[in-house]
Amino acid sequence: MGYSRWSPSDWTGYAKTNSHKKMNEVFTQNGIHKDFDPKLITMRESRDSALNPNSNAIILGLDVTGSMGVIADKMRSHALGTLVNEILNRKPVSDPQIMFMGIGDCAALDRAPLQVSQFETDISMAKQLEKIWLEKGGGGNNYESYHLPWYFASQFTSIDCFEKRNKKGYIFTIGDEEAPPELTAEQIEKVFGTTVQSPKDYTSEQLLNMASKMYHVYHVVVEKGHYASSNLNSVLDSWHNLIGQRTIRLDDTDNLAEVIVSTIQVNEGVEASKVIDSWKGAKSKSIAHAIKDLVPYHKEDNDKEGGNIVRF
What we know:
Elements lengths: L7 H11 L4 H4 L17 E3 L9 E8 L5 H22 L5 E8 L10 E3 L7 H6 L18 H9 E3 H6 L3 E7 L6 E2 L1 H8 L9 E2 H8 L3 E8 L5 H16 L3 E4 L5 H12 L4 H6 L3 H11 L21
């Protein structure tokens, strides 16, 4: 919403009360929360305010299928505090406003293939995160619906960082499976309750280009996830073919927040080697594994439709 401000002390209090709790004690939804249902959402807004005058929209799409619920759990137990505090301290972007999405599998007929929180600037982020339903669905098709956040972001978000300052927000999808092939008109109607006129179906590349008009788009591969641990090469190949060097390799889920912050730093112009050296010990090695091939975004890389995908 943007009308309050993140306080490290608020996070300390939240973590003291909640970090020790088990995942099933915190994530208690047994169905999609009505506030998170895309069918009931007209628009999600990231707006400037007196306390956050230069807002920057950041969308984190978390795979909640199978065992991937651990990502949401690590985010609420410690990663969220690290993420926001490090962005505020390192200042790759100002006034972060964070939205969470839960990602399932619309092709496998999950009941909640997409869940969407509000953009928030304070400890409400954590409380929004807790409302996500860990459906644990998915199917045997080797991918999840990682493109649903791209469609939502392109059609149902309005962000001041782009509209007022021509500065793109960020989308990070996070999961362990391959890139999805397409999004059909039937799936769009099921998830969003809207009818698509043209084109009837979207390829993932079309959706990526749509989202890239307003957002820098990345995918974080959870290398030790159930699927990726046995099929890492095929997972990496599928993402490299789609988004090139914006494929981020996460070898330790405990470092998710640091990897996201580091990615933003490099994209905003800080040399990757300097970012890597700013972390200590094993954490630095994990960051190097994730971002060593990243290059910053430059306006001249935009294509005629506003895309910003840099490929190998």
